Protein 1
Amino acid sequence: SAAMKSLQFISAEAFVSNAEFARKNLCGVARDLFPLLFKASYLLEQGEVIHDLVENWPLVDFNIGKLLGTTVDYQEDLSHRTCSVCLESCLTGLRDYVLNHPSSYVKRLKVVDLTGMKDVEVQFCRCKKTMGRWARTQLLSKLCLELLFCLQQRQCDPGIFEVSIDVLIELFVTDRNYELIVQALLKKSYCPLKICCVALRFDNLALQKFFYIIKLIDLSLLRKLEIVHNVRLEMEHLEILLNSIHFPLLTSLTLPARTFNVQRFTATDERMLNNIGEKMGEMMQLTELSVSFSILTGRIQKLLSPLKTPLKMLDVSNCSLNHADMVYLANSFHANHLEALDLSGHNIFDLYPSTFFKFLSHFSSVLRILTLEDCNIQDTHVNMLILGLSPCQKLQEFKFLGNPLSSQALKHLFTFLCELPMLKNVEFPVPRDCYPVGITYPIDDASLCRFDHQKYESVAEELKLILLQANREDVKASTPLFGSYDAAVQETKNELGAYLIKSFKETLEKFTTSLNKMS
């Protein structure tokens, strides 16, 4: 909004709004005005101006999150605009910064930080095309290789080889961009742009390729490692990984589904689990851990007790935790620090209600995000839930999809939720009375959409009215049937879809072959 712009910012917008004029006159612009002009160009999506600003960047660092975040001259935070035009112009500008002869200044740029971009569901940029984390990984790798090619092709100014710029990035590797990233990493020492990986996400990748990339990356800066979906990492592979590689700064770890399965445990597996727990404690400063869809019944202590740092985020959804696990959690040193907890897929109220609420009471003063999906929470449990949540005054997100609650119970719950001052986001289930009588929970995918949509809409309106009457329009309430928006999954869904179809086809072919053999 215009009200939030300083006079200086308005002047900057005027200057960059005519691209041709701005590009001609950049040489006369004072160094300390570059950040201001960059944000103004980004707001107006002036790709060519952005390119030239970065190509002639006169400062020691370029931190995109800070440049686009809240600034004195314009409070609006633009770091969630992952606009394709703007980001591509930024990165090609960076390549050309290395290649071109500066006319009026010495090249001073040492650090480029691309980690401040936030991938969100709704984009406000005019081009409506986003460049997500996967595409940013792809483009940076491509530009590093292009740069090397240019340096080989032409007789370059020897000064170029003295340029060394650390580029901090959150890499996202799948089978489709694997080859390109490997090439860029192999040639890293020759390239003036140094890829520095602070977060790493793997999806849809063979284990061999996963281990190869891990070997190529300098892990000394890595803070976050996510291994998800179609990476077949099992417990023995995790043990090899932890035994052979050090992660000195790692604070956040996400493991794929079925990494652990204690139902099939042998004595060797027990030893392996102990070793994994100890290694995680020794060499990581973990504050975030996600091990969803593993079977960890009775073993959560083995995994968590060796950790030296208290966890702030724990996702143990669908891990078949039992009463002993819940007792451990309630009494562990992690309990006082949890800001985000996901216990989805556990029948909390029937199995261990008092232990769960004891657990919750320890971190209720710091809790920001609570997810209890498919927990068989029923109408009779709502009062207990309200009692447990009352002290959670910092709660920002509460997700409880997939629970068999009636519209009456939801209204009762929403009336209470209005009182939580920091609440911003609620994901609530389709009321039980919108489904056919006799539906069983958890509801399978086939029946998920078979509810009375008209009735649902009218209940949803009533729930929103409860928020409205309590002056809580700031709370977003929704029912994303197939789970919350995930930018990374959204960006690679075509590749993942193709992978799933392929593996389904292979399974069918094997099945057909074995049938043929039988006949």
Note: The two ends are 73 Å apart (CA to CA).
Protein 2
Amino acid sequence: RSGVFASSCLLVQALGVALFLRGFFPVPVRSVPRREARADPPAEPAPPGPGMVSNWTKIPPPLFKKVVIVLIDALRDDFVFGSKGKQFMPYTTQVVEKGTSYSFIAEAKPPTVTMPRIKALMTGSIPGFIDVVVNLNSPALLDDNLIWQAKTAGKRIVFYGDDTWVKLFPKHFVEYDGTTSFFVSDFTEVDDNVTRHLDRVLKREDWDLLILHYLGLDHIGHMTGPNSPLVGPKLREMDNILKKIHISLLSKEEASLPNLLVVCGDHGMSETGSHGVNSLQFVYWLRCSVVGTIPATSSAPLAQPEHVQQTDLACTLAIGLGLPISRNSVGNLILPVVGGKTMREQLRFVHLNGFQLSRLLQENTPAYEKDPGYEHFKIAEKSHGNWIKLYLEGNNSEVLLNLGKKVLKQYLEALKTLSSSLSKQVAQYDMYSMMVGTVIIMEVLLLLLLSVPKALSKRAEFEVPLSPPLFSLLFYLMCLMLCAVHVIVCTSAESLCYFCSLSWLTAVGVMMLISALMCGILSAIAKIFENSRLPPKGPIVSSSSWSEVDVLILTGTIGHVLSLGASSFIEEEHQTWYFLINTLCLVLCQELCRNNFLLKECDPQHSMNVKQNFDSTGENLECKNIDIPAASNSKLGKATSSSEFIKGSDKWISLATPWIILICCRLLRSLNQTGVQWAHRPDFGHWLTSSEHKSELSFLAAISLLMIFFLVQRRCSLVSKIAMALGLLGVYSYRAAIGNVIFPWQHGGKDISK
């Protein structure tokens, strides 16, 4: 019966967890499968009146001949627009200041992990947190994306860099060389493996799209933070690479089509070196042609670049390459990139973007016609038709220009609203499904907590009274109440809820399960209270009340769990642990002092029992102040003195232990300043890892590894001792090879082979 009960609890718990996760990980906004994505593009809006038809029904031609995308992992905006940009990236800063580029700051929505961010850049969609799970084993991307569209259109794509691209887009590149991203201590070779192909590929003409993904800056951030002295040389290296690419593309420019250089980051870098949340990266579009004029109004000032969404890049790149916009994209066209084109071309671009967003909204929202963005798009589309009528009639007056600007403004407003509506669907949690799952989980947890005392007793019996709840009035009342709540929630919810989409039979079954669990819990609690009132059958045994240590452990555990509800407490969680450990040590010290000095160590009756049973004193002696005649037995005297010595040493060791732990905790706190707020403050760890104190760090590391060996080797076999010794030696050798510690036999100024 206990096995059936435990299995049933696990199954019900799995159901609750599945419901909660289904609400926590919302279904992403998706369109039709990729193989159906190359449908005919929409034509221009039909002008009003009979006999008038627009002659533009194809996708606009490419705006650029060759496109180079340089993705610098963890490129922060202040690395270019701040003081570091002027100091370490002079060429890039100079190009931005001249106004010959379009500069933006792109905002990346969480999760800020490389693989989801690549998906966002190439599909224009917003990945969910479930993509973090598959980040380590990136499967092929099956959604409609820019790389697939370019390959289908016959464009030749070359890629060098992070092998995540190769996994996401297998068989899409005519040439590629992937580098692994998990050797975080590698700052140099991971980028050299990309740059070594650059001179050769820039001289060739057999490619249309070149993608370079540099990882070194991200690795430096993870290991040493954004303020590391290693960041400057890495930024200077990236600036020289951008200069080389820019000059090469300028030398191959043509009068018909310019080339395009796009520099961007996949995510930002926090002050502690992690990716951060809502990361801001620098993005700039560099038209490598001096023939095409760039209007002065399209380049933002260096100090105040325009903010865009990272998902906007996929849509803009598709327009620039003359490709269809990805069906799942929620991004908007970055208008300054096409600001030099005619009014008809600009209206055609934004109409294609609006048509794609409105179609995506139709496929994911039942009441799409009531969406403000869809209504604005239809109004703009109608105005666009009126503008086309004037254009086809040959009207070149000021009225045509003003109407075109008005239509363009309407389109941009509709695009912004449509994108916002679609983005909210991705980031919106299914609260009702989460609440139902949480109720089931908490009910099973409470039932298990009620069963633990009985399950741990000698007889290990626990009877769940199932029959009374299932035939009680309370059960049916709870079922009716929960079903009424379900009807109200499902009929009034504006967004689609997974639990509401289930059949009514399934929903009623879940409500009956919740009601049965609640009635079972109430019956079990009532039975516990009923048993507590019954008179005891055996002799009265005094039960010890909770001590201060028990109360502290319970209170500290509950308080720590509650503190995890706030992100600031999670970031500074170590402060909570410091407080709890120090408090626990002090309470333990008080408890030990009271037990050893304030309480009577034994009563007279117990002393007489020990005196009468002196033969078993060696095993049963519990008190040290026992009056036993020395002449009774010499063997008893020896055992007594030995036990007194052991008891006395144990007492002083137990009294000293909390203070030793407190001292060790204080030393540990001074080793590293962790968290977010105080990570920049100097500590013993910074002192040890500085180049001036490498010998001290090496000595401490060697002593620590030797202590580990001597403490563990006593319980090991000969083979295990040899294996552990070689392993610990390998740990030290690895740290010496990467320059953290020194070898005792290392000669000064002589490098060691890795």
Note: The first strand starts at residue 67 and ends at 72.
